Structure prediction request, 411 residues.
Amino acid sequence: MQACNSNVDPPSVSATIGERQNTLDTIIGENSNLCLPSVSATIGKLQKPLNVIVSEGSGLETISNGIGFRQQGGKSHFIRSDTVRTTIYDLPTEILSEIFFYCLPKHEHLSPESRLAPILLTTICRRWREVAVGFPRLWCNPQLDVKQADWQKRALCYNTWLSRSRGCPLSLRLNCHTDWSELQALLQPYLQQISSLTIEFFACDGPFMMEDFHRLKNLTIRQSALDRARVINRSLSKLPVNLRSINLTDMMFDRERLNFFGDSAWAHLTHVEIAISGVDAFPQILHLCPNVSFLMITGMFHLTRTAELAITHTNLHTLHIYGYLLFNPTENFGLFNVVTLPNLRVVKVDRIGTWPHEEFKAFLMRSKCPLEKLIFGDGVSSTAQPQEEYATLLPSLKVITPKPLTISRRL
Prediction:
C-alpha cells in the first residue's frame, strides 16, 4: 500500500476531449443530481474554451481526468498555459466535483492508492485538493486491508480516508488477516455510517461483533483458503436489527450448521443468498428467515436421511436455485416436497440437471401460488409436455427457456 499523500508522476492519458465534453453533458443531464442555474449558464461558455485547448496550435493532444499533458522528449509534462487556467481552474466547484466522481476507478470498493483517484486528485494542485477533500461522495467506498504489518501506518491512512466521508453512508470492504481488535478502534467512530459491508476472512481468529453495526443493511461474507467456520458462525449469531440483505454464497451451510443460529438472529432478513449442502437445509433457511422475500440457494442439493419438517412460508416471492446435482437425475429432487409457498411469483433454476416436473407440479397444486415466471437457465433439462401442464394449472404463467445455440457460417 502506498502512502496517502505521496507525490506521483502524471497518469497516462485515458480520455479524449470528446469524452470529457460528453461527461460534462452527462453531469447536467438526467443522471445528475445537480439542479443549479449556474451550471446550465456556465456549460455553454465552457465548451468553446475546451475546444480551444485542443486546437492544432495549442500542442495539447488529449485530456486525462481534466489535466492537460504535452509530449516532449518522450516524457509527459503538465500544461500550465493561461488557456488551461482560465477553463479547467475556473470550473464551478459543483461541476468539478461531479467530474471527479466520474474519474473514480470502476470498482465497487477503492484501495487507497496514490496513483488512483480519489487520492490522485488531491496531489494536482491546492484547488483540486480542496474540492476533492470536500466532496464526501469520493470517499464512501473504501477497501481496507487489515494486517498486522505496518498497521499503525495503515490505520492513519484509513482514518484519513474515512473522515473525509463526513457522515455519509459508507460501503466498506474489509480484508481481514488479523483479529477484530486491530480494527475495532479504527471503525468505532464510523459504525453508524456503515450501510453496506463486505468481509473477506483470510486468517482472522476472532469473531466480528456484527450487532455493533446498527445502520448496516447489506452484508456479504467471504472466506479464502482456510476454513473459518467457527469465526464466521459466531459473527453471524447476532446480526444488526436493521440488516435486510445477506450474501453467504462463498461458504457451505448444511442443516447442522444452520441449527447453530437462533431463530431471532435472521428473522428480519428479506434478501438472502446462501450456499447449502443437502436439500434439508432449504426448509431450515425458510424457518430461520420468516420475512425473506428473495432467496437464492446455490451448492449441492443431494438427498439426506434427515427427517424434514413441512413448512409454509408466506413471504417468499422469488426463488433462484443454482447448483450441481450429486445424485442420479432419475431420483426425486426433494427440494419442493416439504415446502408450501403460497405467494411465490418467480422461480429461476440453473444447472440442476433434470427438472423434477411431477414434484414441482404437486408443489404448485399444494401452494396455490400466483406464479408468474418459471425461468430455466443453462444446465436444466425439461420437455415441452411439463410446460403445457403448467399452463393448464396457471394460465398466466410464463415459462422461459434458454435460446438454442446457433452457429453461423460465412461462406
About this structure: The radius of gyration is 27 Å.
